[in-house]
Each structure stands twice: as C-alpha cells, then as structure tokens.
C-alpha cells in the first residue's frame, strides 16, 4: 500500500502546484513513539530521535524483500586534526576489525599486545632519527604478529556474508562517514545486533597491515590525474577551510605517522548518537523496526560535539590558474565560489547548473557538446555545509588549447549573465527532475541515500521535498542577477597537461611480516549470530509465460510486453540482432544520430523537444545486438514516438558534423592510449586473444576518414528494416501499444539480411608468457589470465559458490591472504568468469594492484593461491548460505524481465537461470570446490603486466618466461 500511496503523491506533484512549503508534522506510531513526517513525501519516511539523540530514519518500500541500510556519522575529513589528516578515513577502515566480543580468540590476551602497539606507535611518531624509527617499526611488526595470533580477520565481513548482505562497504568524504549494507528483510534483527555491537567498543586490531592498505590507496590516488586536479581545485578554492587544507586520504607524512590514541579520541568525540543516524529503507515493518533499533542502540551516550570554526575565505579578485602535469590526457577544470548547501540560494545554484548543463538541453549541452566544439564538457555543483563551488570541466579537441576550451565555458556563462536563455527551460528542468524522482523513490537504495544526505546536511528533508517546486518561483531576473554576482573574474582554473609529473612522492613499502588470520576459527559472538535462522523468504523466479505478454506486430514482429510495468513511465525498445561485430560502421552510425536533424527540426531542436516531453531516446549497439530505445513520461509517449520515428526515418546527412565527429573520435582514441585503465583492458584482451582481438576490432583511422555522411544516414534509415523485436514496459495495453505503433512505426515489405558475425576464439594459455605495457605510474598492476572450458550452464551454481569462497569479497580467501595477512595490495581479487554465450570459453582471472617494490611478493602470494586452495569449511558453508539468501531475495522487475528472457533464449533455457542454480546449490560440497580449483584454476597462466619500466625488473621476469612488450598501437589497433 505504501508504494501505491507514493505513486499517487508523485502524480499529484505534477499538477503544477507552486507552493514550496512542506508541512512537517509530529505523529505517534503504534507503540507510542513520536516521529516526524512530511506532507507530499513520496518516500513516506519517518524521522525518529532516540532519547540519546540518535536519529533513526525509516521508510517502507516493498519492491524487493531487502533493506538498504546506512549508518552515517556527521564527521569526515574536514573534522580531521591538522596534524593527523586522513584519520577519519582510516578509522572507517578499522571499524571493520571487530570489538572485544568478536574478531578475537581471546581478547584479554590480545589486549596486552595491543596496548604495547599503542605505546610503540606513540614512540614512533615522536622519533625523528631514521634508524631509531626503523627499530621501533620492527618492534611494531613483531608485536603485531604476536597480537595477530589472537585476532580473527574479517569476522565482520563473514557475519554480513552469512546474513545475506550485499554491497558491504563504507565511504568517507568531507563531512560524513557512512557504513553501507543491503540486507535481506528477514535479517533486520541480526543486522541490528551486529551493528550495535560494532559501534559499542571497536578495537583497533591488525592495524599495521590495514594501514598498509591505506598506503596503497594513497598510491592509487597519486596515479590518478583526475584526483590530483580535483584536490588542487579545492585547495585553491577554499584555502581557509579544511575542505581545501586537507584531503580525505591525508598526507603521506601523516599516513606514515599514525596515532592510535588520536584515532580512538576521534571516535569518542564524533561517533556519538547525537551525531549519527541509522537509515533503513526497504521491506520493513516500520513500527516494529523502530522498536528494535531503539532497543539495540539506546546504550549509546550523547556528548557535545565540538564545532569547528574556520576563517572566512579571502575574496577571489582575479582568476587563479594552476597547472597539474601527468601522463593522462589533457583536461580543464574551473571552479566558482557559490552559496553553500544550507543557503537560501542553494536551489538557485542547482537551477543555474541545470540551465547550463542537464545532459540534454542546457547551454553547454547544446552549444558545446551537441555542436562538437570539444571532446567533453559538463558542470556540476559541489554544495557542502560551509562552502559551495560550481565546477566546470571538459576535454579539448585535437589542436585545441585548454585556454580555448576555457573561453568556450566563459561564453556559455556570459549567455547566462546576459539573459540569453529560454525561461521555458526551467519548466522542462522541473518536469525531468520529477521523472527522476519517480525512479529514485521506486528504488529503496536511492531513497536511502537521499535521506542520508538530508540528515548530514542538517535534517533538511522538508527543503529537499520542496526544492523542485521552489525552482519554479525564480524569475529570469533572479537568475541573471545571481550569475552576475557569482560568476566573476574571481575564480580558479586548473589545467591538466600531459607530461612527466614532478615527483608526487609515494608511501614506501614498510617491512611487514605475514600475520595470522586464524582462518576457520570464530568467536562465540559470530557463532551465535550465524546459527540464528530467520523465517525463509520465498523466492520469486520468473515465469516467462506469466510475466510477459507475448504478441506480434505486422508480419510476425514479436512484441514482448511486461505485464507488471511502470504506471507513470514507459520504456520502448526495438531490439535488432545485429551489432558492431556484424558491421563495424553500424556503431559509428548510432553515434552520429544524436548530431543530426531533419527537414523539420535541427539537432538542437530535437534535444529540446525531447527534454520538454521528459523523454529520452537513443540507439546503443554491442557486439551482437542493437537497441533502439525510447523512455520517459508515459503521458508523453505518443508525441515522443512520433518525434523519434521521424528522426529515424528522415535524419539528414550533415558532412560538417560527421567531420567533427571523426575528429572527436580520433582525439578520443589518442586519449584512450593515455588512460591506464583502458590500456590494461586492451592488454588483457591482447593476452587472451592475440594481436587481433575484440578490443582492437575497430575501424582504422583511414576507414573512418573514408565514411560518408550519406552512408551512415542510410544505416539510420534502415534500422527498422532489420529483423527486430519490440519490447515495452508501461501503462499501455498491448492493443493500445499496437495502435500507437501503427501511426508511426514503418515496417518494410522484407527485412534486410543480417551480415556475418565476426567471432574471436580465445588462445590456449598452456605456456606461461607475460605481456607488458609501459605506463608512468606509482603502482604496478598484474593480471593472471587462463583459458578454460566452453560455457556449460550446469556449472553455474558451482562457479558461483567457488567465486564467493575464493575471490569474491572481503571475506574471501584471496582478500584475506593477500591484503589482510600480508598487506601486499589495496585491490586484489580473483574469479572464474563465465562466457556470455554458448560455444565461447570461460576464463580465470586474478588481479593485484600494488607497489612495484612489493610486486614479487604479491605475485608469489597469488601464485600460491592459484596452485593450492586453502580449506575452510565454515567459510564455504557461509558463502553458500549467502548465495541462497541472495537467490531468495532477488527480484527481477519491469524491463529487466525482458532482458533476462532474451538472455535465457540465447542460452537455450526455458526457465529462470536462478531457479536452476537454486536447485543445484544444496548438493555442492567443499570437495566439489577443491576439485573445481584443481581442474580449472590450478595450472598455467599468461600475464598482463602494466607499470613503469623503470620500476619493474623485466630481466628477472624474462629469466622465468617469455616476455612481450606490447606497443599502444598493437593494443588499440590504431
């Protein structure tokens, strides 16, 4: 009933009411507890406050039998002490290590060593002599090894896995630290018991290995040019505030000199109930859930939270220009100071941002992106509690200077300042955002994050709800006045230029001895949690005949309509069984479409019209399929379809725009060769498939130049001439859908033949070989790659169990051994990857991203795991139970049902694959997983190695196996 009510409320919002005062009222629940609620609240959230000040925000959403949980603290990097930056972030890491009741075999014995470690770190931090510091650290390492004999690594993660949680994680930003879990609805009590204990008395155990993981995270940031640019922008925008003075991850110097005493003091200062919130959105009984939260968390004691006072910022009179040098492609970032999130003008900042760029019809969207005057251009506000910034960012064309790109942004801002924009755009912005709200409140996770943000920003949920209607109250004069006040010469520009960076430093490898993780052991607290068996949730697998209404259109074109679709929104797909591996020019034509107009509309006008209708259109293509799609507000379906079909049928060739597109594509190709993530992706494909592979199967630069506008437009005109299916989700009946299609969707007398598919076969990996690509970076990344057998659907359950056990998360064997025990990497994983279609080969993949000076140890550690599987029966059973719960609580809804059915057909399945997996799950044993490892994981691999040639001993690798250094031209095919 709550969902129905939410839909009615949102529909009511569309009536055009301009009142932006939300009624806030106090009510009493069934158990006599007082809560705050809000009129016209599509989330139907209740805001409770315990006697100790803990905020509890609850909302019911029954889309899935799951609950998104967030525990938020109003403290982040801006609360870090100036002499211990990064503290909030590594405290976040430590809150996964347990308490005196879990995470330890015998806390009384462990504590003796933990106290010694505390004292040793204080000595270490006060010592400046290098040799003395080394001796102290050696002692820290030794005592940590003794303490670890009593520690049980990852017990928190094991518990969350055991109760079927997904997305277990946390994050820290300027003014918040948030702990995240998505749990089954029948595990609420267990989750609350775990979390109440987690925050009762956290113990900073296994500290020096976790700190090494933070070091690695810092090094990854040093390899990220975008992060360097962002940090420089904040540093120069807000020099008098901690937003600019310090970064979330902290300085190298502070990371090298942590204080457990200060971490503990920080926790006691900020992790207090009057500074925290428990947020739960999902399939809950709100009354009963609040009672349980109150019972579990009322032990917490309120304390005064210190208020940090910062000096006012010195006015920016002139433009301040900064340059960042790094190996990635050139880019630009501009920042203007604007009002903060709590200002009365915060909604005006957001409105101005959307007038400039809303991804469809803003000034930047039309005049820069659609006009192809640069490779990339966008803007985004960063509204924090005490400061606000409006950020503009972009990437230049080949031959275009960053200064020229900068001027293009100024030109758009000047249009705003001069009032050269259509105020009707504001109505379109509000309508499109209301559509976004329908999607947001349909998602239990998105709703939870919105509520969390309101809490962190001062419980301003009422303002959040009123924001859209408030935007309609601003006049053109308000916007012009605002623009002229804030977008002045006083701003900051950061030029990201390509080159060899100055020494950014790195956190050097400390000497860490492997610590015990006590695999297979558990505390009484964890055992008690995991033996509690809640009432099972009945799984809901798809019954395709009942969930999809099958029909046909014209001469046998299949129509698949979701029976339980959206009421206010629609999705329409024309699904073509032709993709870029059938015809490489098709993908180019698809990309070209958004820059074309018709005899009736220019390309810019088409974007505006769709935005007015709160609809979106496009064509996407993958290797074997293409999707011609139209989505948006259901009441706009008829007009949107007419406009879309007219574009597909009557798009006009435009040589100038094609030339621009080719120039941008060539620049994008050049930029890709400077992106380490893309280089590694191509290197992996090269290692598995050889020099001609799926990643470099693209049109050559010469072929691009030879394409004509008329040729590409013919592809667009003929999209409906290929054999296709029609998918629909929305409020229309099948007959009404057909009637609408009759008006606009033209069907040819005969369909065009489908070109032959280009296929690639994976190479044998029975001889070890390393494929190396050079890149200027602090870290080194290595992948293990192995060809396996062809896809076999019957193996799906076994593969899922193996991945969960071996390398699928923070409680997995790989994570425990390489990160927790040996501190050899921040990011590491391994999994057995199933092919996407019958006849293709599965593969094994493993990964480590680490410092070059730890590469040899990291490789050896992963090799050992790939050769021999450690046995932990408890971990195995826990993982299998987690999979069972995820199967029981997973729900496939709306358009996703159609994609699922399409995939099932390709795999020759008549039933939901989740049902087949569930039927096989119970029979899988630990012996099955051991044998799976022996048969499919153990053996010979090829390696993809990415790093700086200066830091890697290639000669040593060459003494062990064949090494091929691969050029960027070989990797990318151009």
Features:
single chain; 38 helices; six-stranded mixed β-sheet; Cytochrome Bc1 Complex, Chain A, domain 1; alpha+beta; 974 residues; 4 domains; disordered N terminus; 18% strand
Question: Could you describe the 3D structure shown?
Answer:
The strands form 5 sheets. Strands 3-4-8-5-7-6 form a 6-stranded mixed β-sheet, sandwiched between helices. Residues 1-20 have low confidence and may be disordered. It folds into 4 domains: 55-308, 2-Layer Sandwich (Cytochrome Bc1 Complex, Chain A, domain 1), CATH 3.30.830; 320-441 and 458-498, Cytochrome Bc1 Complex, Chain A, domain 1 (2-Layer Sandwich); 544-653 and 708-744, Metalloenzyme, LuxS/M16 peptidase-like (Cytochrome Bc1 Complex, Chain A, domain 1, 2-Layer Sandwich), CATH 3.30.830.10; 769-972, 2-Layer Sandwich (Cytochrome Bc1 Complex, Chain A, domain 1), CATH 3.30.830. The chain is built from 38 helices and 25 strands. The longest helix has 20 residues, at 107-126. Helix 1 (2-13) runs antiparallel to helix 16 (424-442) and helix 30 (796-806) packs across helix 36 (926-937).
Class computed from helices, strands and strand pairing: alpha+beta
Secondary structure tally: strands = 25
Strand content: 15-25%
Number of helical stretches of at least 4 residues: 38
| Gap between N and C termini | 57 Å
Biggest sheet overview: 6 strands, mixed
Q: What order do the strands of the largest sheet run in, or round the barrel if closed?
A: 3-4-8-5-7-6
């Amino acid at each position: 009933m709550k969902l129905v009510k939410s839909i009615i409320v949102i529909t009511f919002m569309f009536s055009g009411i301009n009142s932006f005062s939300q009624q806030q009222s106090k009510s009493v629940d069934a158990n006599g507890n007082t809560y705050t609620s809000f009129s016209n609240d599509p989330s139907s959230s209740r805001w409770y406050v315990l006697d100790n000040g803990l905020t509890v925000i609850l909302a019911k959403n029954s889309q899935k039998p799951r609950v998104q949980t967030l525990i938020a603290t109003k403290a982040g990097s801006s609360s870090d002490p100036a002499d211990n930056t990064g503290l909030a972030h590594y405290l976040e890491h430590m809150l996964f290590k347990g308490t005196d009741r879990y995470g330890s075999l015998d806390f009384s014995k462990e504590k003796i060593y933990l106290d010694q470690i505390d004292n040793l770190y204080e000595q270490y931090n006060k010592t400046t002599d290098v040799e003395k510091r080394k001796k102290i650290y050696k002692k820290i390492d030794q005592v940590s090894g003794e303490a670890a004999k009593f520690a049980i690594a990852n017990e928190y993660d094991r518990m969350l896995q055991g109760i079927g949680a997904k997305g277990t994680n946390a994050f820290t930003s300027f003014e918040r630290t948030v702990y995240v879990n998505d749990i089954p609805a029948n595990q609420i009590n267990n989750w609350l018991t775990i979390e109440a204990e987690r925050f009762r008395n956290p113990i900073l155990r296994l500290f020096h290995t976790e700190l090494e993981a933070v070091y690695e995270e810092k090094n990854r940031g040093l390899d990220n040019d975008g992060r360097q640019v962002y940090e420089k922008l904040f540093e120069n925008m807000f020099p008098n505030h901690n937003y600019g003075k310090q970064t979330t991850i902290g300085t190298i110097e502070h990371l090298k000199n942590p204080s457990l005493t200060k971490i503990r003091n920080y926790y006691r200062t900020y992790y207090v109930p009057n500074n925290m919130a428990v947020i739960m959105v999902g399939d809950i009984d709100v009354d009963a859930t609040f009672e349980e939260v109150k019972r579990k968390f009322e032990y917490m004691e309120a304390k005064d939270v210190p208020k940090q006072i910062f000096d006012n910022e010195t006015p920016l009179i002139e433009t301040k220009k900064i340059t960042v040098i790094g190996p990635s492609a050139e880019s630009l970032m501009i920042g203007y100071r604007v009002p903060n999130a709590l200002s009365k003008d915060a909604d005006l900042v957001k409105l101005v941002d959307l007038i400039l760029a809303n991804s469809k019809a803003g000034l930047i969207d039309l005049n820069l992106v659609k006009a192809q005057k640069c490779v990339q251009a966008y803007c985004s506000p960063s509204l924090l509690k005490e400061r606000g910034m409006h950020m503009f960012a972009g990437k230049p064309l080949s031959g275009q200077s960053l200064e020229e790109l900068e001027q293009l942004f100024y030109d758009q801002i000047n249009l705003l300042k001069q009032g050269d924009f259509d105020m009707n755009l504001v109505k379109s912005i509000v309508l499109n955002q209301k559509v976004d709200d329908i999607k947001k409140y349909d998602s239990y996770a998105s709703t939870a994050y919105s509520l969390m943000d309101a809490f962190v920003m001062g419980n301003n949920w009422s303002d959040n709800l009123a924001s859209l209607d408030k935007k309609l109250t601003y006049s053109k004069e308000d916007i012009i006045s605002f623009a002229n006040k804030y977008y002045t010469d006083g701003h900051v520009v950061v030029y990201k230029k390509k080159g060899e960076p100055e020494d950014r430093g790195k956190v050097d490898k400390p000497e860490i001895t492997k610590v015990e993780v006590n695999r297979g052991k558990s505390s009484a607290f964890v055992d008690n949690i995991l033996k509690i068996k809640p009432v099972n949730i009945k799984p809901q697998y798809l019954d395709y005949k009942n969930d999809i209404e099958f029909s046909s259109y014209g001469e046998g074109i299949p129509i698949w309509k979701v029976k339980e679709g959206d009421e206010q929104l629609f999705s329409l797909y024309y699904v073509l069984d032709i993709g870029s591996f059938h015809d490489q020019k098709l993908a180019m034509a698809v990309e070209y479409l958004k820059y074309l107009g018709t005899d009736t509309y220019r390309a810019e006008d088409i974007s505006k019209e769709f935005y007015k209708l709160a609809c979106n259109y496009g064509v996407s293509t993958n290797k074997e399929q293409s999707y011609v799609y139209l989505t948006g507000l259901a009441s706009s379906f008829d007009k949107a379809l007419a406009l879309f079909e007219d574009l597909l049928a009557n798009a006009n060739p435009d040589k100038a725009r094609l030339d621009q597109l080719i120039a941008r594509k060539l620049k994008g190709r050049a930029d890709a060769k400077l992106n380490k993530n893309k280089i590694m992706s191509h290197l992996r494909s090269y290692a598995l498939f050889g020099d001609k592979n799926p990643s470099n199967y693209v049109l050559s630069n010469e072929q691009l130049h030879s394409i004509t506008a008329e040729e590409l437009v013919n592809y667009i005109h003929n999209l409906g001439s290929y054999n296709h299916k029609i998918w629909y989700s929305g409020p229309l009946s099948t007959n009404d859908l057909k009637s609408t299609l009759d008006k606009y969707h033209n069907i040819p007398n005969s369909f065009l033949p489908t070109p032959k598919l280009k296929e690639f076969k994976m190479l044998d990996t029975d001889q070890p070989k390393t494929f190396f690509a050079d890149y200027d970076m602090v870290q080194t990344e290595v992948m293990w790659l192995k060809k396996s057998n062809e896809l076999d659907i019957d193996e799906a359950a076994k593969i899922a169990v193996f991945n969960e056990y071996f390398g699928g998360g923070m409680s997995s064997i790989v994570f425990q051994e390489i990160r927790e025990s040996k501190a050899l990497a921040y990011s590491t994983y391994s999994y057995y990857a199933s092919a996407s279609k019958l006849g293709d080969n599965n593969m094994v993949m493993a990964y480590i991203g680490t410092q070059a000076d730890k590469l040899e140890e990291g490789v050896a550690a992963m090799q050992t795991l790939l050769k021999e599987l450690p046995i932990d029966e408890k971990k195995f059973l826990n993982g299998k139970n987690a999979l069972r719960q995820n199967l029981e609580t997973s729900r496939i809804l709306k358009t996703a049902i159609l994609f699922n059915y399409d995939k099932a057909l390709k795999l020759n399945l008549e039933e939901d694959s989740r049902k087949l997996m569930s039927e096989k799950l119970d029979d899988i044993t630990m012996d099955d997983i051991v044998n799976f490892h022996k048969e499919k994981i153990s053996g010979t691999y090829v390696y993809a190695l990415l790093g700086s040639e200066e830091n890697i001993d290639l000669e040593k690798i060459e003494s062990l196996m064949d090494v091929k250094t691969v050029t960027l031209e070989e990797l990318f095919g151009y």
